[in-house]
Design a protein that fits this description.
This protein has about 375 residues and is an alpha/beta fold. It has twelve helices and eleven strands. The protein has helices at about 15-30, 35, 70-75, 130-135, 150-165, 180-190, 205-215, 235, 245-255, 310-330, 335-345, 355-365; strands at about 5-10, 55-60, 100, 140-145, 165-170, 190-195, 220-230, 270-275, 280-290, 300-310, 335. The strands form two sheets. It has a seven-stranded parallel beta sheet with strand order 3-2-1-4-5-6-11, with helices on both faces. It has a four-stranded mixed beta sheet with strand order 8-7-9-10.
Length: about 375
């Protein structure tokens, strides 16, 4: 049965994450009842009347010449996208990808790589984003810009404020977790979810849970690292280490927040490590934790996690989008702390993951107002 409710979504950045999101929406729309009732791959199939297929893209922005001017259903499969194919094609959307503002949205070194990998900036003139958002009727904007796009993310945040569009900020640029920006969204009467999306079962959420486990079981964590490799454009972009400051802060704080006493910075290293082209959208995490158990006896944990990076965050994004729309329906503005703490690495308020999960359930049911 088709949903009676719709969510009009604008997308900034038609990369691997956007591709997985849209392919996934198409997949669940056509999924059998067993997939739907068992919530396979989703935290919620039906969230207060909104299902994955409730999401309808009404505007999309990018800067790559292979995507700008293309229909959205073609652009999500265009290079340099390399994520796993969930479905071979999606239904026509009627949406053409439009040229966005560049700012710092692409690192200069990206032009040095082969055509299938590198960014090739379109020579099209940027559109009036606020005008497009208003005319399209967009209700929620999801930001999928590259890591390090500080100015560009702030530009689109301002566009949301002006157009009165809710924002889901998947990037490690601190908007929802910045009190000044949070107040701007509160004053504008629109909700925001952010910052820096967690994967469904990814490096950060696993590291957080294990860190909490050590603490709850009386093991003193002495030192830890998390090393990540991947072959998508996100990892290629992050070879420019000058763009990683906020990313490292976000990922590190997500783990440190699970400790009663944070580790010294020399004893914790978390961050992207290297770009391996043939991995494509596969991300591999190498995790090590060293601690002291009973009577100070050493305990070492090593783990390797391999995931498809973009699909791993798509289900989480669907949760965030639907909660943002639910807030619009209920006329709730400002930072949605519950869904931000559950889905984001750098929320304005860090809470244990079990508590974050319960807060989201309470928000959906109406028992919690943020």
């Amino acid at each position: 049965m088709e949903p009676t409710k719709k969510i009009k979504l604008a997308i900034v950045g038609v990369g691997n994450c956007a591709s997985s999101l849209l392919q996934g929406i198409h997949y669940y729309k056509n999924a059998n009842d067993q997939v739907r009732t068992k919530h396979v791959g989703l935290m919620h199939y039906d969230l207060a009347g909104y299902r994955p297929e409730s999401i309808e893209v009404v505007a999309a922005f990018d800067i790559d010449k292979r995507k700008v001017g293309q229909t959205l259903e073609k652009a999500i499969y265009a290079k340099p996208n390399c994520t796993k194919e969930i479905v071979p094609e999606i239904s026509p959307t009627g949406i053409t990808v439009q040229m966005g503002e560049i700012y710092d949205g692409v690192s200069a070194h990206m032009a040095d790589y082969v055509e299938d990998r590198a960014f090739r900036i379109s020579d099209a003139k940027p559109v009036d984003v606020v005008k497009v958002l208003k005319e399209s009727g967009a209700e929620v904007l999801i930001c999928y810009l590259p890591v390090g796009s500080e100015e560009a993310v702030r530009f689109y945040a301002n566009c949301c404020l002006e157009a009165k569009v809710a924002m889901v900020n998947c990037m490690p640029v601190f908007i929802a977790s910045n009190p000044e920006w949070a107040q701007k969204f509160k004053d504008a009467g629109i909700p925001i979810v952010g910052d820096d999306i967690k994967s469904q079962v990814g490096a950060t959420i696993v590291h957080r849970v294990l860190t909490r486990l050590f603490s709850d079981r009386g093991v003193k964590l002495d030192r830890t690292y998390q090393l990540n490799t991947g072959g998508n454009t996100d990892f290629l972009n992050m070879l420019n280490f000058s763009r990683l400051k906020s990313k490292k802060i976000s990922k590190t704080e997500a783990v440190q927040s699970q400790l009663d006493e944070p580790l010294d910075e020399d004893n914790i290293h978390i961050g992207p490590s290297d770009y391996v082209p043939w991995q494509n959208d596969n991300k591999v995490c190498f995790l090590r934790m060293e601690g002291q158990g009973f009577a100070g006896v050493p305990l070492h944990l090593e783990m390797r996690l391999s995931v498809e990076d973009s699909p791993n965050s798509a289900g989480v994004a669907i949760e965030a989008i639907r909660c943002a729309k639910l807030a619009l329906d209920r006329k709730i503005s400002g930072v949605l702390k519950s869904i931000s703490s559950y889905t984001m690495k750098h929320p304005i308020e860090q809470v244990p993951d079990a508590k974050a999960y319960q807060n989201v359930e309470d928000f959906i049911s109406g028992r919690l107002e943020y």
